């Protein structure tokens, strides 16, 4: 068994769509990044890569490569899962926490779980996605950005 954890942060900005776990979230701002900046899936990719001791997301999808400009992070997650499986591991489960004061994402979570499970090739019962606020503390609490943490178990 191998455990991996991942963490990512992206700044909120105007004129960008907000994607979390492959789901477009209705909000007046989106996350700034080279790809679609799906902070939750980036943290999940790092957790998977870390558990398999394969490095991090920047190693495989550098922000200096135009090939990944505005790419869907769902595609990145699929590729990471293929790398993990090629290394001889199966994905047992994933647990993702999104930290944001706003927007509220509770109603989006079922679809986010489904998107993530489909991209990973695992059952939706093996994917947990939850959200929390920081009680208006820190950059997330001030609405400047969103962070995410993820933990995975490989066998």
Question: What is the topological layout?
Answer:
Blueprint: E1 2-13, E2 18-20, E3 23-25, E4 30-31, H1 39-51, H2 57-60, H3 73-86, E5 91-99, H4 109-120, E6 127-132, H5 138-141, E7 145-154
Helix pairs in contact: 1-3, 3-4
Would you mind describing this structure in some detail?
The protein has 155 residues and is an alpha+beta fold. It contains 5 helices and 7 strands. The strands form 2 sheets. It has a 5-stranded mixed beta sheet. Strands 2-3 form a two-stranded antiparallel sheet. Strand 2 and strand 3 form a beta hairpin. Helix 1 runs parallel beside helix 3 and helix 3 packs across helix 4. The model has no long low-confidence stretch (mean pLDDT 97).
Class per helix and strand makeup:
alpha+beta
N-end to C-end Cα span: 5 Å
Helix content: 25-40%
> How would you sum up the global shape?
globular
Please tell me how large the radius of gyration is.
14 Å
Q: What is this structure, in a nutshell?
A:
The protein is α+β, with helices and mostly antiparallel strands and 155 residues long. The protein has helices at 39-51, 57-60, 73-86, 109-120, 138-141; strands spanning 2-13, 18-20, 23-25, 30-31, 91-99, 127-132, 145-154.
């Amino acid at each position: 068994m191998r455990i991996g954890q991942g963490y990512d942060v992206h700044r909120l900005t105007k004129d960008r769509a907000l994607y979390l776990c492959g789901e477009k979230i209705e909000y007046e701002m989106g996350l700034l990044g080279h790809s679609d900046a799906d902070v939750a899936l980036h943290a999940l990719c790092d957790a998977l890569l870390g558990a398999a001791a394969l490095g991090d997301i920047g190693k495989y999808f550098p922000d200096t490569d135009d090939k990944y400009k505005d790419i869907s992070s769902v595609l990145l997650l699929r590729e990471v899962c293929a790398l993990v499986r090629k290394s001889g591991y199966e994905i047992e489960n994933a647990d993702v926490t999104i930290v944001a004061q706003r927007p509220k994402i509770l109603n989006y979570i079922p679809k986010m779980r489904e998107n993530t499970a489909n991209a990973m090739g695992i059952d939706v019962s093996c994917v947990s996605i939850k959200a929390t606020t920081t009680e208006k503390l820190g950059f997330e609490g001030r609405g400047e950005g969103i962070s995410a943490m993820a933990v995975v178990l490989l066998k």
